[in-house]
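REQUEST ID: PR-0412
SUBMITTED BY: lab tech R.K.
PRIORITY: routine
TASK: structure prediction, single protein chain
INPUT:
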Amino acid sequence: MEKEKKAGLASLLKILPPVDFCCVYGSALHPNNYEKSTMVDYILGVSDPMQWHSQNLAMNGHHYASLMAYLGGAKLITQVADEIGVGVHFNPFVSVNDETFKYGVVRMHDLVEDVLDWKTFYLSGRLQKPMLIVMYGYWSKYLSHWGIMVQILVDNLDIANLNSVNLKGAISAALLLLPTKFTEEQLYAKACSLSYMGDLRMLFAEDRNKVKKIVQGQFDLFQTMYKPLLEEYAAKGLLQFSSSDGHQAIMSQDCGLSVARSLVSSLPSQLRSQMGMRLGEKTKFRESGRVIREVVFGSRDKATECMRGVLRRKVMVSSARQAVSGLLAVGGINAVNYLANKMEKAWKSWT
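STATUS: complete
OUTPUT:
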């Protein structure tokens, strides 16, 4: 990414109140994307959304839908995001220096909780794709990971490091969904697809080939992002690198009950808890005195289907809630424009 582009990405922060975390994601950051009309997507983490919105309304009231701004102000904006949506308020179609942005504001506690536990699996899914990490003010220290990518501009709580837990969860879930033998590309595609399972937008407002395009278009970057973790899994005996065709590895895994239990135990705690409610749990005591609860299942297939069902419902509920919240938050005209752009892309993928 050229220096001017990096500075341009940080330009939005200059007109907003201070944030604790900022990442940029989406196809607009792809190095081969020359579509100037593409909207650049931001996630902003703040300690107190109501206070932040109150400051931002005074600074940038035109970023908000008039109805939300005048009827309830920061309190209503935050309530709609928390009680109807999944804790994220988006302001789309924000123009700065001839660039168009969309930024979502989320409470830092909620962001950390989703990354570690997949509480809503809304933001954590976005952080499972290849990312470019750039610490604001230290442009020379970055990792060139292109894809549906995330560029971290501000990270006061080290979300980038916490995200390794999120990525391990994605690998474990993907392995449970895969057969005995599979290719590296199939593994990345399965991990990438997790956050789209049950997403209502995939029915009418997303490219049907989205996952395939993401993985095949940025395969080398998925390797850079996931390969160290895959080697860790191989060292634990959870998968094997069988062979290689020169471009990608051919992998295999033991689909027995013991490995399945290890994979389930490495899933995020809230996902395991919801699986336990369906399949049953048992309590075990570690030597350290720590009490852990294990999901009880008699076959790998049962565990896989249960996990799939829990994830599908989680994504469906989150996407529906956020869609309703978004319609209320951005106003009628912006909502229609945004949905029209999405449906146009989806239509092209079907024809």
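NOTES: The CA atoms of residues 49 and 107 lie 6 Å apart.
REVIEWED BY: pending
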